Amino acid sequence: MQKVTFYHAGCNVCVAAEQQVLNLVDENKFELDIVHFADQPNRIAEAEELGVKSVPALVINNQVLHINFGASMADVKAG
Amino acid sequence: MQKVTFYHAGCNVCVAAEQQVLNLVDENKFELDIVHFADQPNRIAEAEELGVKSVPALVINNQVLHINFGASMADVKAG
After folding, report:
1. How far is B47 from chain A (nearest CA, A)?
2. Which of B20, B30, B53 to substitute to test the interface with A, most A CBs within 10 Å?
3. C-alpha distance from A46 to closest chain B C-alpha (Å)
4. pLDDT tens, B10-37?
5. Helix (H), strand (E), coil (C) string for B29-79
6. Cα of A78 to nearest chain B Cα, Å
Protein backbone atom coordinates (compact mmCIF):
# COMPACT_ATOMS: atom_id res chain seq x y z
CA MET A 1 0.00 0.00 0.00
CA GLN A 2 1.32 3.43 -0.85
CA LYS A 3 1.64 5.92 1.95
CA VAL A 4 0.34 9.46 1.89
CA THR A 5 1.10 11.90 4.66
CA PHE A 6 -1.04 14.92 5.47
CA TYR A 7 0.81 17.48 7.60
CA HIS A 8 -1.13 20.15 9.38
CA ALA A 9 -1.17 22.45 12.36
CA GLY A 10 -4.80 22.53 13.38
CA CYS A 11 -5.50 25.87 11.69
CA ASN A 12 -8.92 26.52 10.17
CA VAL A 13 -7.57 26.20 6.63
CA CYS A 14 -5.90 22.93 7.66
CA VAL A 15 -9.05 21.43 9.12
CA ALA A 16 -11.17 22.35 6.12
CA ALA A 17 -8.60 20.87 3.75
CA GLU A 18 -8.23 17.76 5.89
CA GLN A 19 -11.93 16.97 5.58
CA GLN A 20 -11.79 17.15 1.79
CA VAL A 21 -8.54 15.21 1.53
CA LEU A 22 -9.82 12.43 3.78
CA ASN A 23 -12.87 12.28 1.60
CA LEU A 24 -10.92 12.16 -1.66
CA VAL A 25 -8.22 9.66 -0.98
CA ASP A 26 -8.76 6.12 -2.16
CA GLU A 27 -8.40 4.10 1.03
CA ASN A 28 -7.98 0.90 -0.91
CA LYS A 29 -4.80 2.21 -2.47
CA PHE A 30 -3.35 4.46 0.20
CA GLU A 31 -2.47 4.40 3.83
CA LEU A 32 -3.10 7.93 5.06
CA ASP A 33 -0.92 9.23 7.88
CA ILE A 34 -2.24 12.42 9.43
CA VAL A 35 0.36 14.42 11.32
CA HIS A 36 -0.74 17.28 13.54
CA PHE A 37 2.42 19.13 14.53
CA ALA A 38 1.01 20.08 17.91
CA ASP A 39 0.80 16.38 18.72
CA GLN A 40 3.96 15.30 16.87
CA PRO A 41 6.41 18.22 16.96
CA ASN A 42 9.24 15.72 16.42
CA ARG A 43 8.04 15.29 12.84
CA ILE A 44 8.56 18.95 11.85
CA ALA A 45 12.13 18.20 10.72
CA GLU A 46 10.96 15.27 8.59
CA ALA A 47 8.36 17.46 6.88
CA GLU A 48 10.92 20.16 6.15
CA GLU A 49 13.32 17.60 4.67
CA LEU A 50 10.55 16.43 2.36
CA GLY A 51 10.11 20.02 1.19
CA VAL A 52 7.03 21.09 3.11
CA LYS A 53 7.03 24.90 3.19
CA SER A 54 3.57 25.53 4.59
CA VAL A 55 0.60 23.65 5.95
CA PRO A 56 -1.67 22.02 5.11
CA ALA A 57 0.44 19.84 2.84
CA LEU A 58 0.09 16.37 1.45
CA VAL A 59 3.14 14.29 0.59
CA ILE A 60 2.72 11.49 -1.91
CA ASN A 61 5.60 9.66 -3.60
CA ASN A 62 8.00 12.25 -2.18
CA GLN A 63 6.11 15.01 -3.97
CA VAL A 64 4.72 17.80 -1.84
CA LEU A 65 1.29 19.17 -2.62
CA HIS A 66 0.80 22.41 -0.69
CA ILE A 67 -2.96 22.77 -0.34
CA ASN A 68 -4.17 26.32 0.13
CA PHE A 69 -2.24 28.22 2.78
CA GLY A 70 -2.78 27.92 6.50
CA ALA A 71 0.60 28.70 8.01
CA SER A 72 4.26 28.70 7.02
CA MET A 73 6.64 26.23 8.59
CA ALA A 74 8.27 29.21 10.32
CA ASP A 75 4.91 29.94 11.95
CA VAL A 76 4.58 26.27 12.88
CA LYS A 77 8.00 26.27 14.54
CA ALA A 78 7.21 29.51 16.38
CA GLY A 79 4.20 27.68 17.82
CA MET B 1 -21.34 9.92 -7.52
CA GLN B 2 -19.71 13.10 -6.27
CA LYS B 3 -17.98 15.27 -8.80
CA VAL B 4 -14.48 16.67 -8.44
CA THR B 5 -13.05 19.13 -10.91
CA PHE B 6 -9.35 19.64 -11.51
CA TYR B 7 -8.60 22.92 -13.28
CA HIS B 8 -5.24 23.44 -14.87
CA ALA B 9 -3.38 25.23 -17.58
CA GLY B 10 -0.84 22.71 -18.77
CA CYS B 11 2.02 24.25 -16.78
CA ASN B 12 4.73 22.00 -15.36
CA VAL B 13 3.43 22.43 -11.82
CA CYS B 14 -0.07 21.59 -13.10
CA VAL B 15 1.01 18.41 -14.84
CA ALA B 16 2.99 17.15 -11.85
CA ALA B 17 0.05 17.82 -9.53
CA GLU B 18 -2.40 16.24 -11.96
CA GLN B 19 -0.54 12.94 -11.88
CA GLN B 20 -0.65 12.79 -8.10
CA VAL B 21 -4.27 13.88 -7.90
CA LEU B 22 -5.40 11.32 -10.47
CA ASN B 23 -3.55 8.73 -8.46
CA LEU B 24 -5.08 9.78 -5.13
CA VAL B 25 -8.71 10.17 -5.95
CA ASP B 26 -11.03 7.30 -5.16
CA GLU B 27 -12.63 6.52 -8.51
CA ASN B 28 -15.36 4.53 -6.88
CA LYS B 29 -16.60 7.61 -5.07
CA PHE B 30 -15.78 10.44 -7.42
CA GLU B 31 -16.25 11.41 -11.00
CA LEU B 32 -13.15 13.42 -11.90
CA ASP B 33 -13.54 16.18 -14.46
CA ILE B 34 -10.22 17.49 -15.75
CA VAL B 35 -10.40 20.93 -17.30
CA HIS B 36 -7.45 22.24 -19.27
CA PHE B 37 -8.17 25.91 -19.92
CA ALA B 38 -6.34 25.84 -23.25
CA ASP B 39 -8.92 23.30 -24.43
CA GLN B 40 -11.91 24.73 -22.58
CA PRO B 41 -11.41 28.50 -22.25
CA ASN B 42 -15.17 28.87 -21.84
CA ARG B 43 -14.84 27.35 -18.38
CA ILE B 44 -12.54 30.05 -17.01
CA ALA B 45 -15.54 32.09 -15.79
CA GLU B 46 -17.01 29.05 -14.05
CA ALA B 47 -13.73 28.43 -12.22
CA GLU B 48 -13.49 32.05 -11.12
CA GLU B 49 -17.04 31.96 -9.79
CA LEU B 50 -16.16 28.90 -7.74
CA GLY B 51 -13.26 30.84 -6.23
CA VAL B 52 -10.30 29.47 -8.17
CA LYS B 53 -7.49 32.03 -7.86
CA SER B 54 -4.64 30.01 -9.34
CA VAL B 55 -3.96 26.70 -11.02
CA PRO B 56 -3.68 23.85 -10.45
CA ALA B 57 -6.82 23.73 -8.32
CA LEU B 58 -9.21 21.02 -7.31
CA VAL B 59 -12.84 21.82 -6.54
CA ILE B 60 -14.74 19.40 -4.35
CA ASN B 61 -18.10 20.13 -2.73
CA ASN B 62 -17.73 23.76 -3.78
CA GLN B 63 -14.51 24.04 -1.80
CA VAL B 64 -11.42 25.07 -3.69
CA LEU B 65 -8.13 23.38 -2.92
CA HIS B 66 -5.33 25.37 -4.54
CA ILE B 67 -2.52 22.87 -5.01
CA ASN B 68 0.95 24.38 -5.18
CA PHE B 69 1.18 27.34 -7.53
CA GLY B 70 1.48 27.10 -11.28
CA ALA B 71 -0.15 30.28 -12.56
CA SER B 72 -2.65 32.88 -11.42
CA MET B 73 -6.02 33.16 -13.12
CA ALA B 74 -4.83 36.51 -14.47
CA ASP B 75 -1.95 34.67 -16.17
CA VAL B 76 -4.40 32.08 -17.48
CA LYS B 77 -6.62 34.78 -18.98
CA ALA B 78 -3.62 36.54 -20.52
CA GLY B 79 -2.93 33.26 -22.30
Report:
1. 16
2. B20
3. 19
4. 999 999 999 999 889 988 889 999 999 9
5. CEEEEEEECCCCHHHHHHHHHHCCCEEEEEEECCEEEEEEEEEEHHHHHHC
6. 23
What is the residue type of B48? E
Return the CATH superfamily for domain A2-73. Answer: Glutaredoxin (3.40.30.10)
Domain B2-78 has what CATH class?
A: alpha beta
Q: Is the predicted ipTM greater than 0.95, yes or no?
A: no
How many Å apart are CA B16 and CA A63, to the nearest integer?
A: 9
Nearest CA in chain A to B63: A20
Question: Between the CA of residue B74 and those of A47, A74, A78, B34, what are the distances in Å?
Answer: 32, 29, 34, 20
For residue A36, the Cα-to-chain-centroid distance in whole angstroms is 8
Written as one letter, the residue type at B73 is M
**pTM here?**
0.92
**In terms of residues, how long is chain B?**
79
